[in-house]
Amino acid sequence: MINKLTLIGVGLIGGSFALALREAGLVREVVGVGRSAENLSAALGMYVIDAYAEAAQAVQGADVVLLAVPVGQMGAMMSAIAPYLAPNTIVTDVGSTKQDVVALARANLSQHLTHFVPGHPIAGAEQSGVKAARGDLFRERNVVLTPLPETNPAAKELIAQLWQSCGAKVSEMAPALHDEVFAAVSHLPHLLAFGLVDYIAAQPNAEALFGFAASGFRDFTRIAGSSPEMWRDICLANRDALLQQLAGYEAELARIKQLIERGDSAALAQLFVAARDARQKHLKH
User: Fold this and answer.
1) Which of 68, 106, 173, 208 maximizes the CB count within 10 A of its CB?
2) What are phi and psi of 103, to 5 degrees?
3) Taking the mean position of all CA atoms in its chain, how far away is CA 114?
């Protein structure tokens, strides 16, 4: 049982975390911190939070502090709360990049590293804000923890148990490996979706193109409805790994372009079959 949970960032992820813990009967009080009074009021009305306050006040006496802000804001927020954290308060985050978050924690939470547990829930939706939050968001979803060498095992275990109580499957990974993996399977696909929509929108006949777009286009570009601020910060925070994946994808596109230019139907079919079979083998849903 957590007596007090502080959400710094009361949006889709933070709000869903609080709702899931409430449904599991594991939290007594939730205090929110956010920039939008409208969003915080909505969170009160949805019983996501019990109250809201400025960050310095909100973290005092908290058992767990969840940092659910864009990674570009992590450093400033860590610095703001550091003087007010109790020695046993556990701080965790939900950032989609981990090496930069760890570096920011070392710079801004240097006296609290034993109780810092970096994390990344692999769940989300194209909508953002607390109104999109739901208690089952993390059910059967992966959550990756990237604990530091200094992280207290009991603190790590508590955060793992909380995510498991939300229905998630918890695993551990080194921060560098995390960023390499998710540059390929998360950050690159989001970048491609944003890029395709931007490309189509810039066409002279964009209205007609969007008007005839069917389920394939909608499925591929769904994630371009995600938070621009968040994904801007992710791309810049993980730029080295993302640029490496972009270079590899550009090479793949160049290869496909050559096959089309040559009219090489056999090679195109072979590529498509291999891709289809790989997807069916590795992606169960």
Assistant:
1) 68
2) -65, -40
3) 23
> What count of other Cβ atoms lies within 10 Å of the Cβ of residue 125?
16
Q: Is 187 helix (H, G, I), strand (E, B) or coil?
A: helix
Task: Convert the pLDDT of each residue in 242-264 to its tens digit.
Answer: 999 999 999 999 999 999 999 99
List all residues 6 or more positions away from 140 whose beta carbon is below 8 Å from its beta carbon.
167, 168, 169
SS3 135: coil
Tell me which residue of 19, 24, 17 sits closest to 47, measured CA to CA: 19
Query: pTM here?
Result: 0.90
Both structure tokens of 50: 């019990």
User: Rounded distance, CA 201 to CA 188, Å?
Assistant: 20
Q: How many whole angstroms separate alpha carbon 241 and alpha carbon 133? A: 30
Q: Is 47 left (phi over 0), alpha (psi -120 to 50) or beta?
A: left
Length of the chain, please? 285
Distance CA 117, CA 146 (A): 7
Q: From CA 212, how far away is CA 215, in angstroms rounded?
A: 10
Contact yes or no for 105/77 (Cβ under 8 A): no
**Per-residue pLDDT tens over the stretch 11-65:** 999 999 999 999 999 999 999 999 888 889 999 999 999 999 999 999 999 999 9
The answer on pLDDT for 126 being more than 70 is no
